[in-house]
Amino acid sequence: MKEIGFLIFLLAYSTVFALFEIQIEGNKGWAAALPCWRVQNKWTRLLIGDKPITGYHVLINVLMLLLLQFPPLLFVTWSWRLECLVIGFILAVWEIEDFLWFIFNPNYGLKNFKPEKVTWHPRWWGPLPDWYWWLPFIWEPLIYLGWPVLGTYH
Prior knowledge:
The structure is a single chain. This protein has about 150 residues and is mainly alpha-helical. The protein has one domain (about 1-150). Helix 1 crosses helix 4 (about 80-105), helix 3 crosses helix 4 and helix 4 (about 80-105) packs across helix 6. It is about 60% helix and about 5% strand. It has 6 helices and 4 strands. The strands form 2 sheets. It has a two-stranded antiparallel ribbon with strand order 1-2.
């Protein structure tokens, strides 16, 4: 049962986050029309590719990290397994939310989820941006490592 609850929460959190970002970004992905700072240099290209790091994305992701760290830090005994679960969850949300942004955004949809329309994801492997393929190799093991803690909290 905890597996189903975890998956429902992961999908619900990712869906709400995607809908929230659609309200903010509209049809201009990667905060292209937002009045925020942007940094793009050789270090950012190494980290996230050919798109800039934006003030919006830094702050929204720090907010998500802080919100998801709140229960582990204040209400339960912290552990490395719990931290793995939280970080794995965050990384999974990033990936799922990004895809759902396109699915739910009336300016895109699945038919426009392709490299020529989604220019802020410059590297694609087949039908998906490259990081959609390799990020699960990080978040899945983290969730797996943290999974046992779900049985210890009620």
